[in-house]
Amino acid sequence: MKQFNPSVTKTKNYLCLISLMGLLFLSCSSPKPKDTVSTGTYYFPEGYLDEVEQVPAFWVASIEEIDTYLKTKVKKGKVETVGTSAGGRPIFSVSYGSKRTGSGTTTFSGSLGVYDIAPYRGEDSDKLVYMGLGGVHGFELEGIMGIINMIEVFETGKDLNGKKRPELASMLDSVDRIVLIPLVSPDGRARIPIRMETDKGVDSPQSFTVHEYLNTGGKKDGSIIGWPDVKEHIPMDFADFGFPGGYPNDNGVNIMHDDFFGSPQPETRMLFDIAANEKPDIIINMHTGVPKNNYFMQIHRPFAEPELQPIFEGLYRQIKTSLTEHGLQGSNDATVESIPPQEYSRYNLSTALNLHCGALSVVIESPSHGFQGTNLAGVPTAHTPEDLLDAQIIAHLESMKFLVQTGGRSKWQKDFFK
Ligand SMILES: [Zn+2]
Q1: Contact 28, 41 (CB under 8 A)
Q2: Alpha-helical regions (H) of 234-330
């Protein structure tokens, strides 16, 4: 780990290089498709890079804004450069509290053999450690913005919209260690040169497709690659597409589906090293992407240790109940909204992190600010940026409260692991 040293200048130089490369590329490649604009090497159908006129002050979600925020606003937390992306961009963490210092006598896998995490974690195994990730997919801005606002609450008691969040602020007193990485994949974020999309609503022809193009990438004819088809290309050869989207790093790898046991990418290696070092109880990995017909925050059941599933279900009920009570789910019935899904995620980064350090590692998906959907009854949603912020804060807050109330992994194993 290195001390904080934001390299805005380096980023600008890098973007200039991209632009130059783009000119070279355009000069020797086939003409761009009709009705598109180009930025550097990439093609965007007209209007796809439209930016909202008035970006709310709390919407801090670009590389430059994050760099400036971390450099100038974080006083209580410790800002560190914890990694470097495939494209050479720095990755920052902000941490609070005292970390585990114990040294165990075995591996995590070894600890499972004796049904006790302590020999892996060491003498301070009972400490409560929370880790939050944003921007694993670089253009899923809600999670990035949420973590920056959470940091602001820890720093000042208020989010960047001026709203007091005393319950969240108090988590500094009850969670021993909090580690936050607002933007895990700066390469993906750097590829999309806008701060915030316009809201395309629920019915416009561009509703969904613009965000999907920016997020999952586009073909040379301007159509979206789309999810999950984009997962057929890891690593992605950028030359095969009009725009590679915000998923991959500059090596073309979507780290949610990295080559975990083979040659993991620098971003993944960084997460593995932090996870092994911090040994968190819970890792919350914030994404953007929910079904358009139930367009509210969703939580995936992780493909992880079977013993953690009841713990996941408890966490799920707690977050979903609070979201429902705050009007941020598809109905007002918390009993229905908090029924955990039976279906598991596929093996992905969350699985790898769980098996690497024993954390309950969970992916949470937000609606996008770029378009709207409906609830299950077909009623259109109207998520404001403030609503999206509230949902992010609630998900992190309830996860931390759950951690405090249940006592973390060393207590879970006594109550649930038989
Ligand atoms: Zn994602």
Answers
A1: no
A2: 266-278, 309-325
d(CA 139, ligand 1 centre) in Å: 8
Contact by Cβ (8 Å): 312, 340: yes
Instruction: Give the residue from 189, 144, 192 showing the smallest Cα distance to 366.
Output: 144
User: Residue 246 corresponds to which amino acid?
Assistant: G
User: What CA–CA distance (Å, rounded) separates 326 from 387?
Assistant: 9
Specify the number of domains making up the chain.
1
| Phi (first) and psi of residue 230, to 5 degrees | -60, -25
Taking a C-beta distance cutoff of 8 angstroms, is the pair 299, 364 a contact? yes
pTM, full prediction? 0.91
Distance, in Å, from the CA atom of 1 to the CA atom of 92, rounded to the nearest integer, reads: 10
Q: Which domain holds residue 51?
A: 2-415
Q: What digits encode the pLDDT tens for the residues 256-304?
A: 999 999 999 999 999 999 999 999 999 999 999 999 999 999 999 999 9
Gap from CA of 123 to ligand 1 centroid (Å) = 36
| 234 CA distance to ligand 1 middle (Å) | 15
Distance CA 298, CA 384 (A): 17
**Which DSSP state fits 65?**
H
User: Residues 82, 88, 90, 91: is their CA dihedral positive or negative?
Assistant: negative
- The Å distance, Cα 217 to ligand 1 centre, comes to 13
Question: For the domain that residue 178 is a member of, what is the CATH number?
Answer: 3.40.630.10
Instruction: Find the 229 Cα to ligand 1 centroid distance in Å.
Output: 14
| pLDDT tens digits, 293-334 | 999 999 999 999 999 999 999 999 999 999 999 999 999 999
| Ligand 1: centre distance to CA 165 (Å) | 27
| CA pair distance 215, 218, nearest whole angstrom | 9
